[in-house]
Fold these 3 entries.
Entry 1:
Amino acid sequence: MLISGRYARWAVWTVFFALFLPVFALPFLVILAASLATNWSGALPSGATLAHYRDAFHGDALDALTTSLLTALAASLLALTAGTWSALAAQALRRRARRLLDALFLLPVAVPSVVVGLSLLVAFSKPPLLLNGTPQIVITAHAVLVTAFAHQSVSAALARLDPVYEQSAAGLGARPAHVLWRVKLPLLLPSLSAAGGLCFALSMGELSATMMLYPPDWLPLPVRIFGATDRGALFTGAALAVVLMAGTLLVLFAVSRIRTRATYR
């Protein structure tokens, strides 16, 4: 460890838990406790029940969870494809042009997401490309918001990639397309899986742009959580929030397994 000494390590752990518990762990514990309660008038919740979770896996709530999963998966694939392509293309550019490309991809992150939603609403509300009122505009908004993270992750991985592998393959007569598919992309697989997981997690929790764009038949779970809490159904909203967190963590765990195997390979 960087910190030697028994008492110094205990001090570091004490400070860590003193900051971690109230700032990170306590809010999640409060949400979990609220999702299992029917009343909370004192210091602790009362009336333990699983009814909120039964409702979360039936009817409209289950449809909202499925919608969020499909939206996040589609947006992550689009963002990962666009971000990987742009990062690979940026390698052939000069430094100034590369910085300009990075700035363009970071622009949706630099502005509020509600601005991104409004811009897409205005841009795709008239022919020839009419997406307003369709699920595609929600997926597009999520992809625009998370592509920057895929682009940055893949760009950082490319900067660390040893060019000797590509040079060896090219020296043996491999074509550029073969080098890309058989050498470069397999070496980037751990970074690609990490970028995909990050894009998925960000898409699952996106709300601001979604509120401006979602059609009635494509209601993601964060919008439903907001609607439940806005009506005063806090315990139902808490159960839906736990389901959202659990679904996201399960997918991220699966992605981490893929990343581990890719790294070992």
Entry 2:
Amino acid sequence: MNQNELNPDASPQAAYGARLRRLRKERGWTQVDLARRMGYSSVHISGVENGSKFPTTRLSRSADVAFGLVGTADAFEREYREIKHGGLLEGFPEYVKYEGRAVEIRQFEVGIVPGLLQTPEYARALADSAVRRGAITPEQADERVSFLAERQAAVKRPHPPMMFVTMDESCIRRPVGGAAVMEAQLAHLTEFAALPNTLLQVAPYDIGERRTLDRPVNLLMLSDRTIIFYAESQSQGHLDRESTSVMPVLTAYHQLQAEALSQAASVAMIEQLRKGTP
């Protein structure tokens, strides 16, 4: 196989490939030898070593078995998760850790259905669109969808958190993935609203300037009553625990809920969209 000289400092992905190659050579294995041990083709191993193929969770676990690194500080799976999270905005990986053990989750979203409420097909349509734009690779799209599934599973625990979700009307009117995907997504929203631990509200267009939040917001309450605030811009995420900055956001969220439609009216609007009526 062609082996280009990879600079480990070029990127986390390059460092991963360079280390995989180094450990293989230290053992006197060819790429064919390692591929056989990992259950991959030698072409695939070459691609990871050269940095042209993005590693995955499955490949990393296979590498750990092959090199005897399972559960160690040097595990490839651990390195891969750092790479994957490195592609996320600042603060988000830490936010997700808290999200999985929050007792209350409050979210506001504009333009798209919030991640925790997305169907797999809706999430896939968004990820595939990012691939077509060249923003992420197909492998990263797969990981993005699976990572979202992990987040969704974490809040479906035996004692789930209370979930308050307020969506701008644009979230349910913006078509994503075609008619069938949107129909299933809207149906999922009505099912979410019927759960005993949820409150779903739509902030309609006609509240105009009374919409108190202009960007997506995530607020978590932990068991010790600590409140964590997370928000994103196009290029940066921000995680905050300071009450002096978190409380005004919480107040704005409550004010938005007061202006938004009730859950019954929100579900009625969603059902009208499902029937194709304005």
Entry 3:
Amino acid sequence: MRRTPARASAPTAVERVRSILAAAHSMTVVSDGRHAEVRRLDASGAMGHFHLHAPFEGTGAPAGARVPVRLELTDIAPTPVRDRLRARVTLTGLLAEPYDPDSTGSTCMEFGQGVLEDGSGRSYVTLHELEATEVDPLATSEAGMLTHLVDEHAELVPLLLRLVRPLPDGGVLRALPAGVDRYGLTLRLEYRRTHRDVRLPFKTPVRHIDHVGPQIHALLSEARRLSHTGRLLT
């Protein structure tokens, strides 16, 4: 009997890298012994500034100089949670000439390796995986959505604790949304000396930003139902 594939409840490493590259407002470029802070990233993110392509596979040596380059990006939670650094992304590769930090055009980069580092460890991604992965539809709007939730609807956030399984004990000092993606909401529970993240998955992955509102309302409706009935799911 054929098994139904398990539904994803969180983004993969390559999905996270793809979204971080799209949503980044700044990055550090290390090349030719120099560090350059690039802060003029537009709506296209890091990949609007760098064009990635496959390594040289022709015969003989490629024409021109080969300058190693490293792109460093950080993923910071948009809400005032404890320990806001969510992940680091590093892309390495080669340039045909030394990097020009004043260039207004896209810089061509021969892709070498992509690395995601977060609380669960280190993951490696390939150029093929990046090219085959769509940007999360919420990636560039995540910060606005979460800050709106915290600033305008702060009273709703503690309600979401009713959805956490197993139910948290009474030691939680504060709960705040630390992230949202197409698969669900990440809630950070802060204790006296530590914190932990829990996932509240959507019923179905979001395919368009207009669809996230109903999914969040569905979570809140379920949390209200549990609060009104006093029912605790195990």
